[in-house]
Design goal:
CATH class of the largest domain: Alpha Beta
Distance between the termini: 53 Å
Strand order of the largest sheet: 2-8-7-6-5-3-4
Number of domains: 2
Largest sheet: 7 strands, mixed
Radius of gyration: 21 Å
Structural class: alpha/beta
Shape: globular
Number of helices: 14
Length: 428
């Protein structure tokens, strides 16, 4: 057979998935591993969603490419009630994960400039490159709380090869890898620059419902004419492996754009598994049970996330207190001299040595778009049993704050991992 390998696309396996596999391998060798590198919700899905999945497990039919009408209506009603988003079921598209839907939107364009914040989720840039688009990184910095600015977007726009090429901004908040969000004023400024340059925005708001104070404000409120909001069950409903994502389209894209998007979907993934769609119908209900479920997740994540940030900050790490989701982005610049002397001159080398010596698994910062020599990493503080944590939280009055005594019980392993990382850095 002829060797055509020189003609292959150079696509590496997702670093998050690879790290998860490496961690599992070390565990089989008897090591205690603190799996802070893989961003999977520790919480179980809503019981009513599990019940529906069981009930409809035998449903084997192909559904409409766009998703079943009941689910699209439930999603529209849910996000209108929860976040005030002006959306109707005909502008909701259901897919096998928001990751696939983001890819599908980008696949609509023959050639586009994809504006990607740095740091940002690991798959945005590879997806853009797979489609032949040009990724343009929009840099941010620790002292800006890893937030992109209107000025940084303007500079990225000016660096384009052609002003006639469509521009797409992938805008994720609360953010992966940083767990941070934006103020009202910042969102207004970003919307203004997007409007001026007619930028299409994919607002990846997969962590929106996990804003720790329940105060997420969708970008669709600021730039309704050209914002596609994506989300799904993976984070707020703890069902990443079910692969259920959704995209909410603005009215301006409800014609030819949507028809072409569904055309691509029909030629690739066809539809989302029907049992999973039926489970999602049960999940997407803005009722007391769902709100209570989210409340407990938020206060648990806030407790452990803020404690971890304080602990690592006291050890000398540059880190901000989290505002949503379950991530911290750690900047190890203060340790550069000591790390370089020990041969750790890149984020990857740093993470490899840290894992080998402490069992703490972090994902290196260059996976998120930072230079390899900017030693940084993402920490996902999800190394705990989500059901145990929910049970503990439910036994405490909603009016009472959670006590740090939970660090010795449901969060014990997470706490040990954070202390191991802090101790290792202190001993350098």
């Amino acid at each position: 057979m002829q060797d055509n390998s020189t003609h292959f696309r150079k696509v590496h396996k997702s670093q998050t998935l690879l790290l998860n596999e490496q961690s599992r391998l070390l565990e089989t060798e008897g090591r205690e591993i603190f799996k802070f590198g893989f961003g999977q919700s520790p919480f179980p899905p809503l019981p009513v969603a599990i019940d529906n999945l069981k009930q409809y497990a035998g449903a084997k039919e192909y559904s409409a490419v766009q998703g079943i009408a009941l689910l699209r209506q439930r999603i529209a009603d849910f996000h209108h009630a929860a976040e005030g988003i002006d959306i109707t079921e005909d502008r909701v598209v259901v897919g096998p994960g928001s990751k696939m839907l983001i890819f599908t939107v980008m696949a609509l364009f023959e050639k586009a400039d994809i504006l990607i914040p740095a740091p940002a989720w690991v798959s945005y840039t590879p997806q853009a490159m797979l489609l032949g688009h040009t990724p343009l990184l929009v840099p941010s910095h620790f002292h800006q709380k890893w937030r992109i600015t209107a000025q940084a977007i303007e500079r990225a726009i000016q660096a384009r090869h052609s002003a006639h090429t469509p521009s797409i901004l992938i805008f994720n908040y609360p953010g992966n890898p940083d767990g941070l969000s934006y103020t009202d004023a910042e969102l207004k400024e970003i919307a203004q620059i997007c409007r001026r340059h007619r930028i299409l925005v994919i607002a990846d708001e997969i962590y929106g419902l996990l804003h720790h104070k329940g105060e997420h404000r969708s970008f669709a409120h600021y730039y309704p004419e050209a914002t596609i909001v994506t989300g799904g069950l993976s984070k707020w409903c703890g069902a990443g492996g079910w692969r259920l994502g959704m995209a909410m389209l603005p009215q301006s894209l409800n014609g030819e754009f949507k028809r072409n998007m569904l055309g691509i979907a029909s030629e690739t993934y066809s539809c989302t598994a029907l049992p999973v769609q039926m489970a999602a119908c049960a999940a997407y209900q803005w009722n007391a049970d769902t709100q209570n479920y989210l409340y407990h997740q938020r206060r648990l994540l806030s407790l452990i996330g803020n404690w971890a940030a304080r602990k690592l900050g006291a050890a000398g790490v540059l880190v901000h207190q989290p505002e949503g989701g379950f991530y911290l982005f750690l900047d190890f610049s203060p340790f550069n001299e000591k790390l370089h002397k020990a041969g750790m001159i890149t984020s990857e080398l740093f993470c490899e040595k840290l894992l080998a010596e402490t069992g703490v698994a972090l994902l290196p910062g260059d996976a998120f778009g930072l230079p390899p020599d900017h030693i940084s990493a993402r920490l996902a503080y999800v190394e705990f049993d989500g059901q145990d944590a929910l049970t503990a939280s439910q036994q405490i009055s909603l009016e009472s704050p959670l006590d740090e005594s939970l660090l010795r019980t449901v969060f014990a392993k997470t706490a040990r991992g954070i202390e191991a990382l802090g101790g290792w850095l202190t001993a350098l």
